[in-house]
Amino acid sequence: MKEEKQRKDLFQMVLGLLPQNLARAADTLDEGERLTCEELRLRAGQPFLARAKGKWVTLPRGGEPAEVTAGDLDHLLARCTSYSVHTYAPQITQGYVPLPGGCRLGVCGEGILGDRGEITAFRRYSSANLRLARQVPHLAQPLRPCLTEEGQLQSVLVLSPPGGGKTTLLRELVKLYSEEGSVSLVDERGEVAACREGVPQYDVGSQTDILTGCPKGPAMEAMVRAMGPQWIALDEITGTEDCGAMLLARGCGCGFLATAHGKEPEDLWRRPAYRRLVEEGVFSRLVRIVSREGKRVYEVYAIRKEDSANAESVGSAAHYRRLGGGWILDQLSLGQKSVSHPVLCGRADIALQ
């Protein structure tokens, strides 16, 4: 299977980035753990950890937990930047280094501040997080009935805490929506499509145009002008600049596929930038990802004005969640099951295997 080989190749690439002693420790993972490995965590003076099969595993060395040293972190950063750390300074000041295949190294340590209080560099690295990308084919397909209204796919926002699987689902949503029209993917960090020499390494659909390495605001403006998309997809909208650019693009007739950090749907209303997107009707669907018993569970909600809610269009009041300002979330039910991804009561239980 193509996806399985891709996962194996990515894991081998990561082994090649690690210091030799830690690579041997990571090499003790069995095949199932390697295929499901999502993160490798390195903290100076602490055990080396892997997140696989939905749980954390302490990696061994000589019968004892492998302990990470500050030297290990320096070695890892040097390898990930091809021994040219200064070349990646703009990304490092944001806390990450992009890696092949949509993977990413997150770093933290002692920050060096500029005149305006902004982070200009790091030194004395204390932690690193190697995040491995993955493609889960057809992940979005079971959700399609809930993302459709009057025969048309709707703009959707994916919500979950960090590391919850937003990018994995977004990748499959982009592919799904590209079956219906053109999608412009703003892949700022190269994690969604993982382009190499302009060719996406992940399948994001035949009608998807990709712009990488560019901030979301200017990228959206360029895509609207140059590519005329029906949909714009972007990962991790974060602030007022992103939201302002989205409103301008919406005024040009574009729909959106986007992700945001948050645990509860009500978090949208607590953050002014997201609240404005709700008030302006930018999104009509919300997909919330939660973790239950090692599985990622997908809850789908319609975002509606309360005065438009009625028994026929919204359903039982037990499904409501109030956001504020007259806006509500109505949890949707598919009323059907999929053999590959069982769907119950608007939730698609996806076991990552």
Q: Mean pLDDT, rounded to whole units? A: 87
- The helix-and-strand class reads alpha+beta
Indicate the low-confidence ranges by residue numbers.
311-316, 335-353
The helicity comes to: 25-40%
Count of helical regions: 11
Largest sheet: 11 strands, mixed
Beginning-to-end CA distance, first to last residue: 13 Å
Gross morphology is globular
Give the beta-strand count: 23
Strand content of the residues, in percent? 25-35%
The radius of gyration is 21 Å
Structure description:
This protein starts with a helix and ends with a strand. With 353 residues, the protein is an alpha+beta fold. Helix 1 runs antiparallel to helix 2 (20-26) and helix 8 (216-227) packs parallel to helix 9 (240-250). The strands form 5 sheets. Strands 11, 12, 15, 16, 17, 18, 19, 20, 21, 22 and 23 form an 11-stranded mixed sheet that branches. Strands 3-2-1-8-7-6 form a 6-stranded antiparallel sheet. The chain is built from 11 helices and 23 strands.
